[in-house]
Amino acid sequence: MPQETQLSSASAAQPDPVPDQVLAAYRKSIDNIDAALIHILAERFRITQAVGEYKAKATLPPADPDREARQIARLRKLSEDADLDPEFSEKFLRFIIEEVIRHHQKARGG
């Protein structure tokens, strides 16, 4: 019998490890939060897409650096209050803002 077959037969004969119920519960919560984040981001991008279309029709610039700075400061404060690393929060928000601006530029045709 080839060695690969022996290994797969041996591993198939071993019982599955006992599921860790505590870890499974944590993972289920994480999965639920991840799903909520995806839905929240989808809704956010639907709204920012409408903003981009409005800005294009009104010939407004795709970016608003003053608002971005205010939002970053506001969300850094919220992060601190929530015991979340403000540096991480700012990077995450900047990533989103860059994507929104890219969409707004696209809506503008450039």
Automatic annotation (TrEMBL):
Record protein name field: chorismate mutase
Pfam family, one: CM_2
The protein's enzyme class: isomerase
Domain Chorismate mutase: from-to ranges: 17-108
Gene3D superfamilies linked: Chorismate mutase
Listed GO biological process terms: chorismate metabolic process; salicylic acid biosynthetic process
SMART domains: CM_2
EC number per UniProt: 5.4.99.5
